[in-house]
Design goal:
With about 625 residues, the protein is α+β, with helices and mostly antiparallel strands. The chain is built from 12 helices and 36 strands.
Length: about 625
């Protein structure tokens, strides 16, 4: 091959700079960049980025999200401890450099619910320290850390929506035994039922925000339709107005709120490619400018100054990771701020093709294919292929830059990602078609996509791997146990092997979601349901495994506990099956530390090279700083 290997470190190591945010007054810019190898928050005047200095110097877990407080006095971020998902809310003071944990409670999950220009200096946070299953609502002063109880959640609501003044307005909870959701309205210290969202609509019906005046509510809804629409409700009269919809796909992938009115100004949707629907005519020229200056690139507006004069626009393409731009609406100019990964610019990157593959029962499976850059529109001869399965399952794959697609294509593999039934974004009939189809029709969709790739001359039937995280990890286990002749090897990561223990051991704050799991999988409270769940669990089909397997897991995973992988590894070892097992003691449901991610992909690359014959970069320094423990196998290293 003539195309140089792209170093793994450039694809999976720390970004150079990412996730910029404007201060509310538009004078300062914050972003994430490494400090001593750990992603931290940096600050600079918006017109003098060369004057940047780090605001935080945390060690261990990288900061992955941050935002300015509504009054611009502080910068906030959330972080957990070694992947336990018990997020703490931290605030950093740009004036003094002080950093404080304002939810300093061990084993407690903090949910940041609201920061608003009408609540300067305060935020609204949900905390589950009184009852691990349910979050109470607190107002916290960012300067002093003083907490004031807003609502003690004795009514067991799973989610809340407040208006911009911090008033509790709506809450949502499941109706036992049905899976429907009850949305209640709060007034005069009491809750009354406002609406019932049917089970079929509930998973992808969600509130966006109240407008600034508190008179209208914007939400994405499936009510009386198959694809979701953006709805605006007059709360006094109940009158509803459809602001945006699409005949084939759901809306809501991205949306833009006006910073003064908090009305939705634009919203996006996506099938094979992104499409924006502009609602506010005042910004039509701005979107036209972005399309003109960034042709062929997908984009989002991730930060807006309070006066709406400046926007941070993030753009990317399949061949190019995120580039961040500053849009000045007054001058009509769009200038590049920086790139997330400028070191990749010299390398030849893979493209991505969107294709709708027909399932055996006639569904359109929107899928995305990447080929090695040297392969052309179609390879001369079939290639080894990796089927990359997204998690969720109520999530989706998109067209655009994907570092795993780029890595695998560069190593000589075709890479195929499939939006199987149950994926979100393609209407409620498609989403609900996945109910009770785990290791059934959902897996058939994946096999149909593999068969399409083989028939098209893309994939070598003898050299197909299946790989994924979370539900994708479950799908990889299913591939190895339910359809062992299809795949040459499998790479399940933080995956599920026993659906019974997954549901039995779910985090306590999933309590409001359990009715959904019981209906979309099976009711674990009944012996019939438990029997069905076992029948769809890879753990009980270990005898079917015939091909090598590489398993990765975080020891602190609370969604899919490490016991899921422990059990199947133990069963495979007792039968003498070929398994390599890598555990990270400082990770949870995925690998947040780049040193750990880098080490796992170095191991995966060597594993795939042995099984499928692709190219392999030497490990080199890619184990440096990693906590990985090889608990089984690994002889190929």
């Amino acid at each position: 091959m003539s195309v140089p290997l792209i170093p793994r470190k450039l694809l999976f190591g720390n970004a150079s700079r990412r996730n910029p945010r404007l201060s509310p007054d538009g004078t300062m810019l914050s972003w994430l960049a490494p400090v001593d190898g750990v992603m931290n928050i940096w600050l600079a005047p918006v017109n003098s980025l060369e004057a940047a200095t780090p605001l935080t110097r945390t060690q261990g877990r990288p900061i992955t999200w941050h935002e300015w407080s509504a009054d611009g006095r502080f910068v906030m971020f959330l972080n957990d401890f070694n992947g336990d998902e018990n997020d703490h809310l931290f605030v950093a003071d740009p004036a003094s450099g002080d950093l404080r944990d304002i939810t300093p409670y061990d084993g407690v999950n903090a949910e940041l619910l609201l920061w608003s220009p009408d609540l300067p200096g305060s935020v609204i946070v949900g905390l589950n320290y009184r009852d691990p299953s349910w979050h109470d609502i607190w107002k916290i002063d960012l300067e002093t850390g003083k907490r004031t109880l807003v609502y003690e959640n004795t009514e067991r609501f799973g989610s809340f929506l407040l208006d911009l003044q911090g008033n509790l307005r709506l809450a949502r909870r499941p109706i036992p035994g049905t899976g429907d959701a009850e949305v209640c309205q709060y007034a005069n210290g009491a809750w009354t039922r406002w609406r019932v969202v049917p089970f079929e609509d509930d998973l992808m019906t969600w509130q966006i925000a109240f407008n600034r005046a508190g008179t209208h509510l914007s939400l994405v809804s499936y009510a009386d339709r198959d694809t979701s629409a953006l709805i605006r409700i007059n709360l006094a009269s109940g009158e509803e107005e459809v602001l945006a919809s699409h005949p084939r796909v759901d809306v809501g992938d991205n949306y833009l709120l006006h910073p003064a009115t908090f009305e939705v100004a634009a919203i996006s949707c996506e099938s094979l490619r992104q499409q924006w629907i502009v609602i506010d005519p005042e910004i039509e020229a701005d979107f036209a400018l972005i399309h003109e200056k960034l042709p062929g690139r997908d984009f989002s507006i991730h930060s807006v100054s309070d006066d709406n004069a400046q926007w941070i626009v993030t753009s990317s393409s399949a061949e190019d990771p995120a580039v961040y731009h500053l849009l000045s609406r007054s001058s009509g100019t769009l200038r590049e701020l920086f790139r997330a990964r400028p070191e990749l610019v010299p390398y030849q990157m893979a493209g991505m093709e969107g294709v709708a593959i027909k399932s055996r029962d006639g569904l359109d499976l929107v899928s995305f294919l990447s080929l090695p850059p040297m392969a052309g529109p179609r390879p001369v001869a079939p290639l080894p292929m990796v089927l990359l399965v997204h998690g969720g399952p109520w999530a989706r794959d998109y067209h655009g830059y994907d570092n795993i697609h780029q890595w695998l294509a560069n190593r000589g593999y075709a890479v195929l990602s499939v939006n199987y039934r149950a994926s979100s974004g393609f209407g409620k009939a498609f989403l609900n078609a996945g109910d009770r189809e785990h290791a059934g029709k959902m897996h058939d969709d994946l096999i149909d996509a593999v068969e399409w790739a083989i028939a098209a001359g893309i994939a070598d039937r003898a050299k197909v791997a299946i790989m994924g995280w979370s539900y994708g990890g479950y799908a990889a286990f299913v591939g190895a146990t339910f359809t062992p002749d299809v795949f040459a090897c499998s790479v399940p990561i933080v995956g599920i092997t026993d659906l019974v223990t997954m549901i039995d051991n779910s985090p306590p704050y999933w309590a409001d979601f359990m009715e959904h799991l019981h209906r979309r999988y099976a009711d674990v409270r009944t012996e019939e349901g438990r029997a069905w769940l076992r029948s769809r669990s890879p753990l009980y089909r270990v005898d079917s495994i015939t091909k090598p397997m590489l398993i990765g897991h975080g020891a602190n995973d609370v969604r899919c506990t490490v016991a899921q992988s422990d059990m199947i590894v133990d069963a495979m070892q007792r039968k003498g099956l070929d398994v390599t097992y890598i555990v990270y003691p400082d990770e949870g449901h995925g690998f947040a530390r780049p040193e750990n991610e880098l080490s796992f992909f170095a191991i995966t690359e060597a594993f795939l090279a042995r099984q499928l014959g692709g190219r392999c970069e030497p490990v080199g320094e890619d184990f440096s700083g990693s906590s990985h423990q090889i608990r089984a196998g690994g002889d190929f290293l």
